[in-house]
Amino acid sequence: MNDSASNGTDSGTGGTSPGPRRSDATRAAILEAARERFAADGYERATIRAIAKDARIDPSMVMRYYGNKEGLFAAAVSYDLRLPDLTSAARDEVGRALVTHFLAMWEENEELTAMLRVGATNQGGAERMQAIFRDQLLPVARQACPDPEQAPARAGLVASQLLGLALTRYVLRFPPTVALAREEIVAWLGPTVQRYLTTPSP
Fold first, then answer.
1. Does the pLDDT value for residue 16 go beyond 80?
2. What's the CATH class of domain 4-76?
3. DSSP class per residue in the chain
4. What is the pLDDT of residue 124?
5. Looking at 67-76, 84-93, 100-109, which range is the least confident one?
6. How many angstroms separate the CA atoms of 155 and 29, rounded?
7. Following DSSP, what letter does each residue of 113-166 receive, concatenated?
8. What is the pLDDT of residue 1?
9. Residue 57 and residue 24: Cα distance in Å, rounded?
10. What percent of the chain has pLDDT over 90?
11. Domain ranges within the chain, ordered by starting residue
């Protein structure tokens, strides 16, 4: 199926239609189909061809707008980390609470692991991961840290631990990291995250 955005015609009326409007409609259709397909099939099993079929366009149009599956995934997927509200948690337990939460999220959601893979190799994916952690982890750091001005740096340090763990456990699959029980990871990593969030700065 040809996209009328390429020639400015509107096949429904036989007249002309502004290119940007048709282009926006095509992009919206692709993104909607991609979100549904990634949610249903997961990142690995979803294909450009299946997404294009769902959007009722030619696969070449998906490639034209987004380049490849990684670029499409980065554009289509947003993620709610569903971070816990730490205002009611004991101050000395916030590190363990965050690590426990993230372990559950990583192990129960294929999309989050896929986002990490894409973010490591695709600029759009990296920007999406940055936005997710900035918009969702930074407010949590502000709840816990003693100096709100230090919240961005502390959130960055927490992210370095959580993403480093995810990379070695779920993407690169280092055997020693994969072999750790969840309780062991919480015991090892919880105090480090706790220190990043609540210990006075050096």
1. no
2. mainly alpha
3. ---GGGTTB-TTTSSB--HHHHHHHHHHHHHHHHHHHHHHHHHHH--HHHHHHHHTS-HHHHHHHHSSHHHHHHHH---------GGGS-GGGHHHHHHHHHHHHHHH-HHHHHHHHHHHH-HHHHHHHHHHHHHHHHHHHHHH-S-GGGHHHHHHHHHHHHHHHHIIIIIS--HHHHHS-HHHHHHHHHHHHHHHHHSPP-
4. 86
5. 84-93
6. 35
7. HHHHHHHHH-HHHHHHHHHHHHHHHHHHHHHH-S-GGGHHHHHHHHHHHHHHHH
8. 42
9. 14
10. 65
11. 4-76, 86-198
Q: Which residue's structure tokens are 């990296």? A: 126
Instruction: Answer positive or negative: Cα dihedral of 143, 144, 148, 152.
Output: negative
pLDDT tens digits for range 116-128: 989 988 888 899 8
pLDDT in tens, 21-45: 788 999 999 999 999 998 888 888 9
* Architecture (CATH level 2) of domain 86-198: Orthogonal Bundle (1.10)
Distance in angstroms (rounded) separating the CA atoms of residues 117 and 128: 12
Amino acid at 145: C
Task: Scan for tokens 């696969």, then name that residue.
Answer: 59
The per-residue pLDDT for 11 is 39
**Residues 165, 104: contact at Cβ < 8 Å?**
no
* Two structure tokens written together for 179: 């072999």
Amino acid letter for position 98 = L
